[in-house]
Write a structure and sequence with these properties.
Helix content is about 20%, strand content about 40%. It has about 250 residues and is α/β, with parallel strands linked by helices. The chain starts with a strand and ends with a strand.
């Protein structure tokens, strides 16, 4: 299991405001908001960071144009920031069974589909998603994803450009979520993750090469730490609403 991507609700300005786009560029992230998937009802732009990425989502119509119904509703109700936290898994069906056995209410994995061209055409993405229940204490949810096959993964990598790898920013190393988890929230985490530690108001989840930390706080915010080997960009950061993206290297 690894961090794959973060789905973030954003205002139109993140897609179109030149000053905001330049701030993202200034920390070494080659953001091109004109690229990305979408329909008449939604627009997605990406920031590619090695094999991980951000999806910046804007809902343009009341129906959302095929975007997830619950996430569309939350966007229209004013939600901004992290809405979906995607983890890549190697066997999504096995993960589904394990969650069921631990009494987590989840639906079977299914592909993402959306309609376009006056609802006449349907596009099915080459992967399946499994959505965990929404957290009660913080306003996002985890979901699992598995691509259909290695051929699909290699095909997808061709489109992960421009990529921050060109600036020696190679991936997401840590995500820190500040907020207050409930008992039900911790039940989800206990079912989902094998290796974690809950101590001194910090719940730390250890993945193979990455880390997720839930830090008890009265104020909700999310900080994402990127691995950076470029002295020109190390320790630089950008804030987008309640999301902070920061480059980090202990030796620079």
């Amino acid at each position: 299991m690894k961090i794959d991507h973060l789905v973030v609700n954003v205002d139109r300005s993140v897609h179109e405001d030149k000053d905001i786009i330049e701030k993202i560029h200034s920390i070494g992230l080659p953001y091109n908001p004109k690229k990305g998937k979408g329909t008449k009802g939604f627009k997605v732009s990406n920031i590619w960071i090695g094999n991980e990425y951000f999806e910046f989502v804007r809902i343009k119509t009341k129906g959302g144009g095929g975007w997830l119904k619950d996430w569309t509703t939350k966007y229209l109700d004013g939600h901004r920031g992290l809405i979906g936290f995607c983890l890549e898994v190697t066997d999504i069906d096995e993960s589904y069974q394990k969650l069921l056995h631990q009494n987590i209410d989840v639906a079977p994995p299914k592909p993402l589909e959306f309609r376009w061209f006056f609802n006449l055409l349907k596009k099915t993405m080459p992967w399946r998603n499994l959505y965990l229940p929404e957290f009660q204490g913080v306003p996002f949810q985890f979901f699992l994803q598995q691509l259909d096959d290695e051929k699909t993964k290699n095909y997808m990598k061709k489109y992960m450009v421009p990529n921050s790898l060109d600036n020696e920013i190679s991936g997401i190393s840590e995500v820190m979520i500040y907020g207050e988890l409930t008992k039900e929230d911790k039940k989800i985490l206990n079912a989902l993750f094998k290796n974690y530690e809950d101590k001194d108001d910090i719940l730390t989840i250890y993945l193979e090469k990455q880390r997720i930390r839930f830090i008890k706080s009265d104020q909700y915010k999310v900080e994402v730490i990127l691995t950076c080997d470029n002295r020109n960009y190390a320790n630089k950061l950008v804030n987008i609403d309640n999301l902070q993206i920061k480059n980090w290297n202990d030796s620079l």
